[in-house]
């Protein structure tokens, strides 16, 4: 499948709503366009998914056969790796080399969850109570069955299109669910190629159903639909709350992977060269459009000046460019809307008197590029840019004195997605890991990921987990069965 055929295919998708342009954010030029599928496309997709589930065509297949199909999807993705990388780099503006690195990791979700297909088991229980209505529980047997949610809605954002798609579709398929998949309206392209390969691998019709459209139309219709049992959502906290509200009609189960304002603590005993470089990478890579990006850096006072200077040096040498530019380390922001949002926070900071150590401006070239920005002198109590998720290459740096003060500053946020600490003191490292209020804590490292390690947010960063055993558990229901022997 050539790139052009995906661009053509999306134009021809049926829809009844607005025409949505697909923009290359590194040039601001339109690549293609499509019509919003809206509620109508969602209703049709849910009906197909429901019929497929009720027919048993997928979840009643032997688990080992489903596993083979998942494995086949991964193999097909590897065969089409270059096309996926090209589509996602064109659509998000991320460097082609980075898109090429993300693709094998994305495909691997299918191999990882292929392994789980045959390992979904309930438990048998010792019944220990005595008494009860029947007088005694003698010779009672109780066990649990794990059963798939029937129709699940999978909604995800633009910042890692193919990764986000695979992180949800793979465990949903492994569990035996039927799904309706809605990628972000900004980045629908790689989902089309994946959809085609899913069918080529042997997933029966109706089991995975792609809908393309806006969040407030298609996404909203999916999250209110009475035949959808569960929504697995990745996106902003603001929309996550809307999903919860929309789910009350039929009390859908909801899994949410939401925003973050992740702290990075750098102690004076840290390997400073490494800490500075990684902390800078941890916010400037992908132009800060990563949920776990460390956007608030706290530095122990004795090394504060050195760290601030080091961050500025990395920022000033951080080469931004369009996907195929030589040596490019990061692409642009995703859209004009996101550019306006990021520059809005920076401009507000400037008028509040925040110190701009470096950056703080849009590059003078086509594309939504913002220079990596380091800000100091922020007032934690009043500054919106310090408190709210910006989702851009903007980091605030503040000093702290004691471990307790550092932890308190780090935890002073409504978010709780990720946190990092840099220290060579082993005891402190583990003490601080316990203190930090985040679903993922990273010690002397940053931006880690493995399919086997659960990922989820504390506080307003989410509900539930993805990846690992928890990732498939989220698509399963537990039924308790009692039997009198
Ligand atoms: P967003 O919340 O605006 O959109 C995410 C998805 O939800 C899109 O597909 C969108 O079309 C859809 N949507 C929008 N409104 C909807 C509605 N009313 N009902 C149903 N669906 C709706 O987020 P975004 O701007 O696309 O992505 C950036 C956000 O995603 C950031 O907050 C970031 O932190 C978060 N994110 C979180 C994780 C994580 O794992 N925790 C990973 C990546 C991104």
Automatic annotation (TrEMBL):
Pfam name, any one: Aldedh
Domain Aldehyde dehydrogenase: 18-481
Catalytic residues, chain numbering: 257
PROSITE patterns assigned to the protein according to its UniProt record, in alphabetical order: ALDEHYDE_DEHYDR_GLU
Keyword Metal-binding attributed: no
Entry keyword set: Oxidoreductase
InterPro entries: Ald_DH/histidinol_DH, Ald_DH_C, Ald_DH_CS_GLU, Ald_DH_N, Aldehyde_DH_dom
Family as reported in the entry's similarity comment: Belongs to the aldehyde dehydrogenase family.
Name of this chain's protein: Aldehyde dehydrogenase family protein
Native source species: Nocardia jiangsuensis
